[in-house]
Each structure stands twice: as C-alpha cells, then as structure tokens.
Design a protein that fits this description.
Elements (H helix, E strand, L loop, with lengths): L13 H17 L11 H17 L27
Helix pairs in contact: 1-2
C-alpha cells in the first residue's frame, strides 16, 4: 500500500510543507480554476523552498545523483558510498 503523502527532505520542513500544500490546494481549487491566477501561496512556498535547500545542503545530498541512470547497470549492484558497515 502506498502512502498518501510524502514527508519533506527534512523533519524541520514538514510543517512548512503541510501548510504550503494546504494553501496551494485551496488556492488551486477555489481561485486558479476560476481564473484568478495570482499565486497567493508563493511567499509560503519560498519559505518552504529555503528550508528544503538548507536541509539538502546540511545533509550533503547531491541532487545530480538523482538524474543518473542506474537500473540495469553495474552501479545498480554497488553499495552506495558511505553505506558500508
């Protein structure tokens, strides 16, 4: 069974994520779909985005790694760097 929502990259950003998603969903259904395109949630998104960027940096996550093809290659069978116990 799949979860209905994803957590944020950092626990410290989770409440910001939930607040932004609630704002966005309300704006989208109540305003955007009725022709009001001014994104009133944009300031909240920027705060959440800054939190995510900080969490990614603190965890030293390399987002370019997400773009690499791994399935069906030798890399698929390799233990990720730093994972050895």
């Amino acid at each position: 069974m799949l979860p209905t929502e994803m957590n944020s990259v950092g626990d410290e950003c989770l409440e910001l994520k939930k607040a932004y998603e609630e704002c966005f969903n309300k704006w989208f259904s109540e305003k955007f779909l009725k022709g009001q395109t001014e994104d009133t949630c944009a300031p909240m998104f920027r705060v959440y985005q800054d939190c995510v960027k900080k969490a990614v940096k603190e965890r030293k996550l390399d987002l370019w790694e997400l773009e690499k093809s791994v399935l069906g290659t030798e890399k698929e069978k390799k233990v990720p760097d730093g994972s050895e116990k």
